[in-house]
Amino acid sequence: MTGTDGAERDRFARGAARIAELDGDRPQPRQEAYRLLAEVAPDLPRLAVEFAYGDVHSRTGLDAARRELVTIGVLIALGDTERQLVSHLTGGLNAGLTSGELVEAVLQALPYAGFPRTINAMLVVRQVLQDRADLPVPAPSTTEAPPT
User: What are phi and psi of 28, to 5 degrees?
Assistant: First the structure.
């Protein structure tokens, strides 16, 4: 075995550990997608685990919850990413985000991604929260503290 093989295993192990942290106890669409992809392109799920989670998501500088917020915003802007949104919304909740923070994050995408993508994303939020018996979402406070 070369040093590269060991490094690849480390990347995969780091990525798999981050995915396990984000997914929690429930099976996620990500796991099913990776299983199906392995039948036709076995390198694709491995590359996703190693690169997206082992190299990028596991970096220091942002905690897992903030990384999930960034990812959710990008997925909303891309559109047609329902399966990925379910996984990252769930990951965000498992990383400590609240249901209200997810709603606000999706609303924040509205001026940039537009109504269709924001509405579709909010329907995914609703489904994720319903599956977790976390509805209704508490109304946000209407007053905000002034900046310091």
Answer: -115, 160
Q: Is the separation of the CB atoms in 21 and 64 below 8 Å?
A: yes
Query: For residues 98 and 134, is the Cβ–Cβ distance under 8 A?
Result: no
Mean pLDDT of the chain: 91
3-state secondary structure of 143: coil
| pLDDT for 143 | 65
For residue 63, the one-letter residue type is D
The pLDDT assigned to 1 comes to: 44
How far apart are alpha carbons 51 and 14 in whole angstroms? 10
Which residue carries 């959710």 as its tokens? Answer: 72
Exposure string of 28-37, with b = 16+ CB inside 10 Å and e = fewer, is bebeebbeee
Q: Which residue has the tokens 């509405």?
A: 119
